[in-house]
Prior knowledge:
Layout: H1 5-8, H2 29-41, E1 48-50, E2 53-55, E3 60-62, E4 65-67, E5 72-74, E6 78-80, E7 83-85, E8 90-91, E9 96-97, E10 101-103, E11 108-109, E12 114-116, E13 119-120, E14 125-126, E15 131-133, E16 136-137, E17 142-143, E18 148-149, E19 160-163, E20 166-169, E21 177-179, E22 184-185, E23 190-191, E24 195-197, E25 202-203, E26 208-209, E27 212-213, E28 218-219
Parallel strand pairs: 1-4, 2-5, 3-6, 4-7, 5-8, 6-9, 7-10, 8-11, 9-12, 10-13, 11-14, 12-15, 13-16, 14-17, 15-18, 16-21, 17-22, 18-23, 21-24, 22-25, 23-26, 24-27, 25-28
Antiparallel strand pairs: 19-20
Amino acid sequence: MSTKLDYYxxxxxxxxxxxxxxxxxxxxxxxxxAKIYLKEHIAEPxxxxxxxxxxxxxxxxxxxxxxxxxxxxxxxxxxxxxxxIGKNCxxxxxxVIRPNTIxxxxxxxxxxSELKHCVLFGGAKIASLAFAGDSVLGASARIGSGAIxxxxxxxxxxxxxxxxxxxxxxxxxxxxCILGDSARLGANAVTQPGTHIGPYSWIFPLTNVRxxxxxxxxxxxxxxxLMEENAxxxxxx
Length: 237
């Protein structure tokens, strides 16, 4: 059981911001560091750099941002800064990228998906119609279509991670998921606030998961499918 940076994210060489991880020992500290970095380097007056190729209508860009070379942005995209998007990314139609998000090189954001205060390592992908809130995705991690990283408890208290008998306060009432290198959330999976998923673990479609999931695990609910006879009913126009 671990919350350590090295446990979840070993491929930090794929991260485009030099010295970003200096002083970070816990994986959940990355989100706080993202706010600090963007405030210091992107949110200053006049930082509006967009080197992307635009396909279709121009995206709606608000606040301050940096968007790297080779990135392709399709129509209907909204970016609300401060935001950093690296090189050679693909932002599909209708995606929304909200403040305090850092997207490293080679990432893909699917149609209609929404990111809020996220950090994505190189090669991470989010498929269509998903929500990633206050979450960190490791190198080549995947979030499937319709998946949700729930990012706030009903009682609005700080997110807590249980490791055995230990309860770790994650320092914020908004906290989604830590998803390690090459880990996957299947389509329509849901993670509860504060979930930590180790590298190379797979959360299968339609699975609801919380707490700590070690590295290299498969997680799924036991399903029993029933099949019964059905009446012939002609549907109305």
